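User: I'm new to structure prediction. If I give you an amino acid sequence, what do you actually give back? Let's try with this one:
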Amino acid sequence: MKYPGQPKSPPSWYKDRGQSYIEKGFSKELGDLADAIESEHWFGDPQNLSRYRVDFVLKDAQLVIELDGHAYHSTPEQLEKDAIRQRYLTRAGYSVIRFTGREINKNTAACVSDVRTIYKERMQRAPAKYRVMYVDYPFLYREMSKALAFYRGLHPNKDLSFVPLEELIPYAIEGLHEKSFVTVFVFHPPEDTTEIEHLDGFVKEYSKGEIRINTISAELYSLELGEHMKSYSHLFDEFFLIADDPVYIEPLRSVLPKEFSERNMGNYTHHYLANGKLLRKGNDETSFVGTDLAHVQWQDVWYIIGASMGLSLHEL
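Assistant: Good question. You get back a string of structure tokens that encode the predicted 3D arrangement of the chain. For your 316 residues, that looks like this:
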């Protein structure tokens, strides 16, 4: 399986077996955690009929709690299955807290207290919003080449040159007002690997936070980008996309709110799709004209390219 599935309700074929003895004991001690924690969730995809059932999940902190009864989880076969399961959940973006049945029976309240402490610490460290940026690298490279030629013609006395990708990205998120941690996925064809593979795992701090870059190579990189966006949408609150191609209409639309938001501007009511931003071509050129993505906040990608080269607002 290329990407893990998202947490979801039990599949229709599943017959609820009811909580085990240790799950009931754990649930009784939850107290103030009861509103945040959910039970009986599954991870997986429709093709695999939802692969893994988890005992409890705290979605906002991306935590899974597993209670391991001794009889069931002590065999070599089950220990191997548990290890595979944990790797799957980790790929889905969740950390796993495990308690043995003996721990639960010995002191349930202490186990719940540990969960409460971990949950509070994670929420205190968490940014106000989880943001992700997807980059179609060939698109950005083409637009950088065009923009560079244009701005050199416009400002012949300036020494303008390409800016490395890691230096350009902060300009794409300069409109954010609060401290932000942005995960960046750069998708590219295999032939571009030598140009950007050094950026995989790159971390850069800037004035408003931090960016973490991941590079992903694929022959059908644009389709791969869309699949990745949908698979991991449960981890993010806001989506940035540096691209301009009809192939991205369906995946981006699927991760944004179903309903339009409204913003009043004088006597005019503006309808828009929240939680997204496009760095794309202008309105006369974009592939998104006539689609819902025309209602997503956007900026001409040449603006951030020029700004990263040191041009001021009136020079763009």
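You can read the tokens as a compact description of the fold. Here is one thing that stands out. The two ends are 45 Å apart (CA to CA).
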